[in-house]
Amino acid sequence: MGMFAALDVSQEETAICLVRGDGGIVAEAKVPTCPDAIADWFRARAVALERVGMETGPLAVWLWNALKERQVPIVCIDARHASGVLKMMPNKTDRHDARGLAQIVRTGWFKTAQIKSHDAYVNRATLTAREALVSMRVKLENEIRGLLKTFGIMFGKRVGGFRRRAEEIISGELAVAPELLPIFEALMQARRDVLAQIAVLDSRIRAIVKRHETARLLMTAPGVGAITALAVVSAFDDASRFRRSSSVRAWLGLTPRRYESGEIRRNGRVSKRGDGFTRKCLYEAANAIFCRSLGGPRLRTWAKAIAERTGPRKAKVALARKLAVILHAMWRTKAPFREAPMA
3-class SS at 281? Predict the structure, then answer.
């Protein structure tokens, strides 16, 4: 009879539960969160080990790759699915979580989470770092505007952008309050440093896209730039993951929720499941197509027709949904973007 196991992973220790095919518990333990320690524990106790499961989490990618190298039949379980089952247990402990996960792995009632390639995670780390720096820049600019309002100075909008207007205020309107100059000069210097690092990451992203054949292919679609193309490539990782291009719509959380019970049937808002950053990039690309003449006139006409019925926001979401399907089809067929008549 085969055996199944599960890991409840934390930073210091990992709870392990080993069960038989009939559900009986064979062994339980807590070991250090180290691939060698976990693999050695299984070698000493498990015979005919069929499958080992663990939830998605911050350490899942590292631990999955390390255990695969050590010939452990590890699978990664979608944490949302596992959470629904584990809520049935009255007491939440690492030991009970490992037990519940082991039963999920034994029955096969789970959805496997895809572990992507090393390059996909590196590209995504670059995009995430840039997004964090952009958020810092926006926060610094808002902080400067807010502090100036305290002293009756309205930042407003001027020709030349944020930097030029800030320099005008520091040299002019703040001259009457010299004790404030060090504060705003420090904030402006921090903004300059953040902008410099954003420029460095932008150069790195352009260099990656220049070498990446698939990213260059996706950039032939209207509204898709280097960041959106790299976000899609790092999110999908492998076009063959989806049997149909239409499946990426639900995977990215761009399809409406569906509720049905008896005579009640209704659609809700989009689920927003999956990769939020890629979904955001696709929405920005759809917004560019919808609001500006960037190519793709048939796509724009199609979205405008939806906007007349349901409004521009829903039209842009629909366009982002269609753009996701188009990009996956382009990747799968290795064909550049070309417009065709649309219903």
Answer: helix
